[in-house]
Write a structure and sequence with these properties.
With 466 residues, the chain is mostly helical. The chain folds into four domains: 97 residues, no CATH class; 116 residues; 74 residues; 57 residues, no CATH class. 61% of the residues lie in helices and 0% in strands. The N terminus is likely disordered.
């Protein structure tokens, strides 16, 4: 179609399809330009020149990590890029391999293990571009003109899209014009309504202004009339007052003279001049006597309070003396009790063996007595100083007479001292540990004393008999 020669297509230009790999390979072959200023040139080493300079990054990896322009455009505009239109009726899309290098696709991936040892600080070169090994057999195919692309048939979808887009844009513009005309009509109606409202407001304000002026004028007239009536009322009142004043002038003159003291009662004058001053003097004297009596009562009360405080202080001192005497008596009783307990303990220690023999079978188990005796022996051995090591015999000097004689035997080590625990110490330990009740010891002591007294009486009787 001759009218569509200058129309841009979806690819941007009218040409035969071209593989993406070719464009990518051509972009990789572009020369990398470096800045001319050596202050920003990466080839100029800064700092320690002995350190290894990192190799420049691979341009292929940099380009691969950089997002494509289509993705940037889609992210900025929020629109999905156009895709390949669906195939027409009776045809289907077939995926073709458009890469420069062909490789064989196999299910089993060859694997191999290898080991290597690198140097201590190797200088890593830039990563080379991956070029797969060439496998398989190359074949050629001849495609004639018109076998894959028929312009008259393939251009129909493009024309439909262009016409639809133009119609949609036209409808959008018409709708926008209609909306703008509607907005202008609405705005004009709004201005008309607003002008009518402003006129109505102005009329209302003028009417209100006239009403206010009329009200102020009426108020002013009312105030003026009230002032005139007030003046008239004062004139009438003044005339009435003058007439009444002149009628009672005689009476008022006599009243004024009486109030001034020209007309007085002799009894009232005597009361004011004589009686009231005398009454005042008597009241003052009575008040002075009452104050003197009050001071005397306060002095008596202070003296009685001082005597009461002295009596209570003496009673308190006597109570403290009684409490101190009671405390001294309690201390003396406690000392007497301690002395009695000490005497009782001395009596127990003097008869420790018989008492222990008398109490042990009933109250204390023999195993407990043996256990306490062994513990006391262990504590006594632990308190002893460690034994001195034996002194070795002196060696005789060579050439002396004692050299030929046999050496004397070394002195034997001293035997450890023998530890004996008395019955008194054992009985005291049992009392301190509360293993033997004091009441049981007292009963055993009474029994022992009774037995001794009976033995003494029997011996005395036998002596008398002899």
């Amino acid at each position: 179609m001759p009218g569509l020669k200058n129309q841009p297509s979806l690819t941007g230009k009218i040409s035969s399809p071209k593989s993406k790999a070719t464009a990518k390979f051509e972009a990789d072959q572009e020369e990398i330009l470096y800045p001319a200023n050596i202050m920003f040139d990466r080839r100029v080493v800064r700092g320690n020149t002995w350190g290894a300079r990192p190799p420049p990054p691979d341009p292929t990896l940099i380009k691969a990590s950089r997002p494509s322009p289509s993705k940037k455009r889609a992210r900025s505009t929020g629109l999905v890029p156009p895709r390949t239109p669906p195939p027409v009726l009776g045809r289907r899309h077939v995926e073709l391999q458009t890469e420069t290098y062909l490789e064989e696709l196999t299910d089993v991936i060859p694997e191999a293990e290898a080991g290597t040892q690198t140097d201590e600080l190797p200088a890593r070169p830039p990563s080379p571009t991956f070029v797969p090994a060439k496998v398989g057999v190359d074949t050629t195919t001849q495609i004639e003109e018109g076998d894959l692309f028929d312009f008259d048939r393939e251009v129909e979808p493009l024309l439909e899209v262009l016409v639809g887009k133009v119609v949609e844009q036209s409808l959008t513009e018409v709708a926008e014009e209609e909306e703008l005309s509607s907005l202008r009509a609405h705005q004009q109606h709004f201005h008309q309504v607003r002008a009518a409202e402003l006129a109505a407001v102005q009329r209302l304000e003028a009417a209100e202004r006239r009403k206010k002026e009329e009200r102020d004028r009426r108020i002013k007239q009312a105030l003026q009339q009230a002032a005139e009536e007030e003046v008239l009322r004062k004139k009438v009142a003044t005339q009435a007052y003058a007439r009444d004043f002149l009628q009672g002038l005689m009476v008022s003159v006599f009243e004024d003279l009486q109030q001034a003291g020209h007309f007085f009662d002799p009894i009232e004058r005597e009361v004011k001049d004589d009686f009231l001053p005398w009454l005042t003097r008597e009241v003052a004297e009575l008040t002075d006597r009452w104050a003197t009596a009050k001071a005397a009562v306060q002095a008596i009360a202070r003296e009685a309070l001082a005597r009461t405080i002295e009596q209570r202080s003496a009673a308190t001192l006597e109570r403290l003396a009684e409490l101190q005497a009671a405390s001294t008596a309690a201390d003396q009783a406690e000392q007497d009790q301690m002395a009695a307990q000490a005497a009782e303990l001395v009596e127990f220690r003097a008869r420790a063996g018989p008492l222990l023999a008398a109490v042990q079978p009933d109250t204390v188990a023999p195993e407990l007595v043996d256990k306490i005796r062994k513990e006391m022996e262990g504590m006594a051995r632990a308190a002893l100083p460690p034994p001195l090591p034996p002194v070795p015999a002196a060696l005789p000097e060579e050439g002396s007479e004692e050299a030929g004689e046999p050496a004397e035997a070394p002195p034997e080590a001293p035997e450890p001292p023998k530890i004996e625990i008395s019955d008194a110490d054992l009985l005291q330990e049992l009392l301190e540990n509360d293993d033997v009740p004091r009441a049981a010891l007292q009963d055993a002591l009474k029994t022992l004393l009774s037995a001794e007294a009976a033995a003494a009486a029997a011996a005395a009787a036998e002596t008398d008999t002899t």
